[in-house]
Write a structure and sequence with these properties.
11 helices, mainly alpha, single chain, about 0% strand
Amino acid sequence: MSAFDAVAALVARDLRGVVRSRSQLYSSILFPLMLLAILGAGVSDGLDPKNVDDYVTFLTPGIVVMTAFFSSTFSSASYYADRDTGVLRALLASPHSPRLVLLGKTLAATLIGVAQALVVLGVAALVPAINFQWQHGVLAGIALALAAIVLVNVFLAGLGQLLASRISSMQGFHLVMNIVLFPFLFFSGAFSPLDDLPLWLATLGAINPLSYAVDAMHIALYHRADGGFFGLAMDFAVLTAVAIAVFWLGTGRRLHSDQ
């Protein structure tokens, strides 16, 4: 079997696993939509956040990024299932390198995250209360949003695999992922504009890779005649750099089947 066929087989296997796990599939899509409905409506009608004219629309890009966050966590956990059932040992006994094994699993996590994020974005676009501005046009806006979604999923899938291959237990993995990624999410501008934050929080936002994904999607979907907080050039430069670097590190771990 060629390297391409091996990666394709690993990707197809993990994709089938997600499709069969309907509870994971449905919850990873329904929970962000539920949060968007509850938080968007509640904050818009009750708290009236400053500098945000339409909070539920402002919130949508952050919810899409959050979908990728949850998807990367769930998908990377399949590493532990394969290890505990002995599948990982069998994969490592094949002629292919450990990097190729992780490449297949990480690509599967990326595709799952992209698909789920696009479903959430598609449903949100059909909701009458959510008014995307499409300041660059609908087709260009969709292309920009898709590029940001793909890059953030590559980054998160690589990060998830990087941590999974170094942490011995699934419980420890989920704990570390929550400790690492929840601050990323809350300091990304997903729930409130970065320019409303104190300087030290805005600084954390500026070094947070998720901030650039949220900003790119705000520019593509939400803002009207606005260049965003960082600008598209900076957004995609940072996202591309961190996605490639973390994906490479995440698939470069030397594996042992008895970890």
